[in-house]
Write a structure and sequence with these properties.
Largest sheet of chain B: 2 strands, antiparallel
Largest interface: A-B, 45 and 44 residues
Number of strands of chain A: 2
Number of helices of chain A: 14
Distance between the termini of chain A: 10 Å
Strand order of the largest sheet of chain B: 1-2
Structural class of chain A: mainly alpha
Helix content of chain B: over 70%
Oligomer: heterodimer
Distance between the termini of chain B: 38 Å
Chain lengths: 332, 285
Amino acid sequence: MRERRAPDLARRRAAALALFALAMAVVPLFASTYVVSVLIVVLFAAYFGQAWNIVTGFAGQLSLGHALYVGLGAYASAVLFVRFGLPPWLGMIAGIVVAALVGSIIAALSFRFAVTGVYFALLTIAFNEFTRILFDHFGWVGATSGLFLPVANRAHDDLVMLRGSPVMFYYFLLALSLGALSLSHFLLRRRIGYYWQAIREDQEAAEALGINVFRYKVAAMALSAAMTAMGGVFLAFYDNNLYPDTVFAIGRSIEIITAPIIGGLGTLFGPILGAFVLATLGEAMTQVSSGFAIDGLKQWCYGAALLLIVALQPAGLWPWLERHLGLAQDRR
Amino acid sequence: MLYLNIIVAGLLTGAVYGLMALGLSVIFGVIRVVNFAHGEMMVLAMYAAYVANRQTGIDPLLFLPAATLLLFCLGYALQRGLINRYIARPDHEQFLLLLAVATIITASLLMGFGPDARNVQLQYAYDSYEVAGLLFDKVRVLAAAGALIGVAALTAFFRFTRTGKAIRACADNQVGAQVVGLDVKRLYAITFGLGAACVGAAGCLLLLLIDVQPYIAPDYTLLGFIIVILGGLGSMPGALLGGLLVGVSEALSAFIIEPSFKSALSFALLILVLLVRPQGLMGRA
């Protein structure tokens, strides 16, 4: 029974994904600028969530400091652009290299000294906060007063200098997000993906099987950091202004990880679904609470919604939705 | 002499930090749950003390027993009703749960009091003692004394009472504790209550020293983490030592480098300790 269903299932999943990608691709043709701006927020959250999902969802290492890599990517590309006029694609390479290096160093230091679990999570926060404060005092990149990118006219989209309309950023982010999805799908079915999952489930057993746990955990962190930094570049050129206290904020680190957890940690589609749910929730709360003008009402509803989700679907929404859409593997 | 004065002020503030972190340490040491809503709970206590002061003019120090009891009940109920179901779940689910709790606390305070900073007016706010050429601010001395009494009381509780011993037994071996017939659920709830009571007391004491506003909460959650990791998660003297250390390092770096740099040094200390001695200064290997 199962043998006959498997290829069928794969086809249905591919069809569902194609449908989703197509829908996302045509949305900007009809949608208002407001909808596009909300979807850009969704895609940023989805992409960062996917990048984070690699180190925490696949390899099982809880990082709570991913804003660090967003910031490194954003600052590297923005500084090279503002100070030297270099195109952001070159800055992106610099950002990726720096973030991957920093991620590897943090991971290597932690895992070499057997810092794992909660301690590792807190160490990632510490590096995140330390860097934020350093940038607060780093005058060359604007320190607390911020770094600003010159806003050119948006009559035409400059793909080389990343100056253009929100729709341009929308398509870049959609491509980025679908790319991350394919990469995750690909890696999970390679040796490295199986090694990560083995480490996540039982590190000692993985070690006993002869897996070089240290190397694969560092690799997960480096890849995750590099991908996060790539997203940071687009964030910098979309926002046009960078302040250490918002780019490196712990709040951003937490935002990055809530979408994948809500959607389903370690699943391929969880981060994307979680990003949609959270952004929709956030927008709905803004609409509703704006009628009351009470400080904190929005955050309160947001907290209550988080509580509800973690109480009802602690493993995330995607596994549940997947079953209902008939896309889940038959586990019987 | 100036430096000595700054170190003294740092030590006194650090004692309050130590009491706050002690709560985090006790909760983690026994229940193995990281209380990501720790700072939020403390800020809640600060607002309770602020309201009591505004309404009746009561000194936060006199309100302290009430705040401690209030937070104990809150912690007990929270553990019993909510967190207990998650103690065997993965780290990230616990994190999300406590993040939700923290968000709701901060948002509730924001709804009730708005984002403005609030403080209590004390007649003795600018009094100080001079001993052997050293200046001691009266508020800091009182806060530190309160904190040390709190730490001593909790230590005595764990050492001498039956319930305290039972909780330690749970921490050492949960299954064993269940086998000999201890009500682990209840003991966990008491432990979380005690951890919350620590921030109840620490909040009242800290209100003597700083203004309160809803958004300072995450900073104090982080500060609590730094301190317990410096001292060693689960170690009671470690939490106090870590608090003193962070208090002094904050005071010195604020003076020597600049105020906005004070937490950078704490984070640097944390990174150093985690890499050189991951179990913390006083933690067991």
